[in-house]
């Protein structure tokens, strides 16, 4: 899956109102992606902290260079890119602190975080150092950064953050106009299929997913009470046989306690018939849920 830009912000001026507007847009985008609630909160917190840091720096530097923030998504990770002008004088100090944070172990980072909370001096603009610690703890990946000096007074600071979905035991294929959202959340023992299924190459689409399941059979076996939830508004005939294949593979690699929930409209008899027939074919009882 190619990386996809899901949000972009660029402005010559950043103020409190523009930050609130940006975070509102990001919150709406996150809600449409059907991520687990814990991940949604994490994405919002990372975005909010990035904007908070950019806003603080913008209050200290008069610059003609814009502030920008972007979020990219691919199957295995979410990447955040924040760029803003800082004073050239403070750039070396920031770089040294970033390098220091990157070298800390998880326990050292935690200890330094709580020490900073207790000892950091309160200022009118708050502490960017604490914000960087929050970002590091939330992403749990090394910071990538760049400093480009533009003048004696101004340097452009770019920070790249990566949130690994693999480390969170989360595998996800985003919903498109023709293909469903498919999400494996091993941490919460939840598998979701949502949207429409009418891919151009249904066999290829589902074979890739089934192969991935087989490659990650240990994660499936580790789930004690997994739930597969299917909520498809529409699926074509090519998808139907592949749905059977997909469910069979999930059953094959999951514990016997696997629960399958199939959602359909209460007045859609054909959809209910399909669900019951697939249930018979795969030899697993479905829980039928009404929309």
Structure description:
The chain has 291 residues and is α/β, with parallel strands linked by helices. It has helices spanning 16-32, 37-58, 88-103, 106-119, 128-139, 202-215, 217-222, 237-253, 269-282, and strands spanning 4-11, 67-73, 77-87, 144-149, 154-164, 170-173, 181-185, 190-197, 227-235, 259-264, 286-290. The chain has two domains: 4-164, Histidine kinase-like ATPase, C-terminal domain (Heat Shock Protein 90), CATH 3.30.565.10; 170-290, Transcription Regulator spoIIAA (2-Layer Sandwich), CATH 3.30.750. It has nine helices and eleven strands. The protein has a six-stranded mixed sheet, with helices on one face. The chain has a five-stranded antiparallel sheet with strand order 1-2-3-5-4.
Computed CA radius of gyration, to the nearest angstrom: 23 Å
Give the uncertain stretches in residue-range form. Answer: 122-126
The fourth-level CATH homologous superfamily of the largest domain is Histidine kinase-like ATPase, C-terminal domain
Number of helices: 9
Second CATH tier, the architecture of the largest domain: 2-Layer Sandwich
Broad CATH class of the largest domain: Alpha Beta
Fraction of residues in β-strands: 25-35%
Bulk shape:
elongated
What's the main sheet like? 6 strands, mixed
Q: Could you tell me how far the N terminus lies from the C terminus, measured between alpha carbons in angstroms?
A: 31 Å
Number of strands: 11
Count of the domains? 2
Content-based structural category: alpha/beta
* Strand order in the largest sheet: 6-7-8-9-10-11
Indicate the CATH topology of the largest domain: Heat Shock Protein 90
Q: What is the average of the pLDDT values?
A: 88
């Amino acid at each position: 899956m190619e990386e996809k830009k899901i949000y972009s912000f660029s402005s010559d001026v950043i103020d409190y109102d523009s930050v609130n507007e940006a975070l509102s847009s990001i919150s709406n985008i996150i809600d449409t992606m059907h991520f687990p609630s814990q991940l949604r909160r994490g994405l919002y917190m990372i975005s909010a902290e990035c904007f908070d840091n950019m806003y603080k720096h913008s209050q200290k530097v008069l610059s003609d260079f814009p502030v920008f923030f972007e979020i990219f998504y691919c199957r295995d990770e979410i990447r955040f890119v924040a760029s803003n002008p800082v004073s050239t004088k403070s750039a070396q100090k920031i770089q040294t602190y970033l390098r220091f944070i990157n070298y800390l172990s998880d326990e050292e980072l935690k200890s330094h975080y709580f020490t900073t909370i207790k000892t950091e001096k309160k200022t009118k603009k708050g502490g960017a150092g604490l914000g960087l610690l929050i970002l590091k703890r939330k992403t749990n990946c090394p910071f990538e950064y760049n400093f480009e000096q533009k003048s004696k007074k101004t340097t452009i600071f770019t920070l790249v953050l990566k949130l690994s979905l693999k480390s969170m035991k989360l595998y996800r294929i985003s919903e498109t106009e023709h293909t469903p959202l498919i999400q494996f959340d091993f941490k919460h023992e939840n598998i979701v299929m949502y949207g429409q299924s009418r891919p151009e190459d249904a066999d290829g689409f589902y074979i890739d997913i089934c192969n991935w399941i087989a490659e990650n059979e240990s994660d499936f076996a580790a789930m004690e009470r997994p739930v597969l939830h299917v909520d498809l508004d529409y699926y074509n005939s090519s998808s139907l046989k592949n749905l059977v294949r997909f469910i069979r593979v999930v059953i094959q690699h999951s514990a016997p306690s696997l629960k399958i929930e199939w959602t359909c409209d209460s007045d859609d008899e054909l959809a209910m018939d399909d669900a019951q027939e697939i249930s018979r074919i795969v030899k697993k009882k479905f829980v039928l849920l009404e929309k």
